[in-house]
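Troubleshooting log. The previous structure file for this entry was overwritten by mistake, so regenerating from the original sequence record. Sequence copied from the archived sheet and checked twice against the printout by T.R.
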Amino acid sequence: MTASKIIGIDLGGTSIKFGILTLKGEVQDKWSIPTNILEDGKHIVPDIVASINHRLNLYNLDKSDFIGIGMGTPGSVNITKGTVKAAYNLNWGDEHEVGKPISEGVGLPFILDNDANVAALGERWVGAGENNPDVVFITLGTGVGGGIIAASELVHGVAGAGGEIGHICVEPNGFDCTCGNKGCLETVTSATGIVRLAHQFAEEYEGTSEIKAAIDNGDEVTSKDIFVAAEAGDKFSLSVVDKFAYYLGFASANLGSTLNPDSIVIGGGVSAAGEFLREKVEAYFKKYAFSTVRNTTKIKLAVLGNDAGIIGAASLALKFKGE
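Regenerated output below.
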């Protein structure tokens, strides 16, 4: 039997998502289980093994039909050793062995990478990247992550920190970042970052605005509230979104002028603002990018949503094809 399937795992602090895919990236089946991070996360790997074996047995799937398993995980990943450390939302502070026990427990080859990197692979493979060999992916959520794919290969860097797009400095005297620096992209274009910008703008804004009034009243304001109000014409919110788009467009222009990818794909929860946001980011990108880059690199929105992780993770396993 010729192996024709791959398994993708998207490991998160709340849930573990699984997918069975074809070699063309089509999701045939997907499921999820809660992430049990108790007792220093010692249950996570056994739970993954048990869940995959249960699924294969449930549908009478033969392991010889599978090329291998790929997984995306938070934290610092040693791809060669198959280990993860500094994944604090999993309670994996110290180096944790992942690859060998999963491979042996399921009986298939296993490979892993950082979760933002695998989401980038997913969008590049069958998403907005249209399988182009040069794609940059930026994910806007609670933080800002990303992945850089050049000549069809992920850029990892000498210490595995390649693609830390959220920590590009866009405002040297800006907000404090959790990484210890100031003015990182993450501080102004994450879901919390745009709210932080709104609070800063509210201190000086003198016009009328429901969002400004809510901030002054101490009410909770979300990134979605700000984008919805901006689309509805709220001038205060429009000024906040414009500043947000400036920072993202400025960073994208620098990435573009360095790498000249086919596309810079914007994903994550904040990207739900859609074309309204994309157009504004693109305008600043074109303002600051090198002329050749401005005319050849496209600003796109991600299309795979929550499936990007399992699809990109599964694509890692394609390296086992033919071995």
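The chain has twelve helices and 13 strands. Archived copy saved in two places this time.
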